[in-house]
Amino acid sequence: MAAENGLASLGVDGATAAAHALSLPAEAYDNDPQLEIMWAMKAYQHAEIYFNLISSVDPVFLKLTKVDDKIYTAFRETFSELNIQVLDPEQLKSTEAKEKWRPFCNQFDGVVEDFNYGTLLRLDCQKDYTEENTIFATRIQFFAIEIARNREGYNTVIYSTKQQAKKDEKK
């Protein structure tokens, strides 16, 4: 994705205006294609940074927010049976799932900054972000699932694979 070109082409003033625009409530906008592109670029950048992070640092030791313990505990209390290794989109997006996710997410309003912003989430945690392996989720869903994946060791395969590739490169 050419996210770098898009942001660079905005310049300092354009980037500042974009940041301001992205901070306004959704009700302030109609379906503006330019705004959708900015949101997609921001979500892509977040995904790219996160994947680079779990590739560089053993995810078991990562802390994503100041309230990771609270998020993890609430997540596992509410979604104890959710398979986080390979997510089923229906468990995030179906009407029944949304009814269960809504109260979970709303408890973090005012606790986690931008808790309801759109974020990209990998379906299969052993794979990179691709069109087939990515779903759009709220930031608190991303945090809950990725904190659980990190703590439960599911994301370690990404880190291990990257470290092995570095060792193989040196040979």
From TrEMBL:
Superkingdom assignment: Eukaryota
* A GO cellular component entry from the record: cytoplasm
In this chain the Polysaccharide biosynthesis domain maps to 35-159
One Pfam annotation reads PBDC1
Record's protein name: Polysaccharide biosynthesis domain containing 1
Its ancestry begins with: Eukaryota, Metazoa, Chordata, Craniata, Vertebrata
